[in-house]
Amino acid sequence: MKEKIISVRLFEFDSEDELSSSESNLLNHAKKACTNAYAPYSQFRVGAALLLENGEVITGSNQENTSYPNGICAERVAIFTAKNKYPDIAIKSIAITANTNNFEIEEPISPCGACRQVIAETESRQHKEIKIIMKGNKGPVLLTNGIKNLLPLMFHEEKLKK
Ligand code: THU
What we know:
Layout: E1 11-13, H1 21-33, E2 45-52, E3 57-61, H2 74-85, E4 91-99, H3 113-126, E5 131-135, E6 141-145
Parallel strand pairs: 4-5
Antiparallel strand pairs: 1-6, 2-3, 2-4, 5-6
């Protein structure tokens, strides 16, 4: 037996003022997208914004349902919307944020496991990593280059082809 240590690389910014103008612009789109969330059950409104290689920004918000598992996260709404409209245009970055009236969200919002898997497959489909920018409604910004940093040992579809 040998121990294996996997390291990941994330950057933490005390404030969004430290981001590039393109990054903070994308985060602002994600904040606006929270307004379109349908979250009567969790009251947790999540917004995601994607910057595509053609310069277009596509947004998504979480959409819940009274049959809870039918709801879908903001990230997947945004990614599937982008891939429906522009199947062959790569996604460069995704910004994710959230708000609720019930408490302050001081930790960056990082995508759930299912969304990480969808981001992973999107990267392998486009042969390009996606920059991920995460923020709560307060507090620091977390940034990482590529889903490998959030989903080490990820499941690749090539494993199905053997
Ligand atoms: N949610 C997202 O939209 N994205 C995330 O990264 C975390 C969770 C949604 C799902 C559900 O509508 C609500 O937030 C509470 O979990």
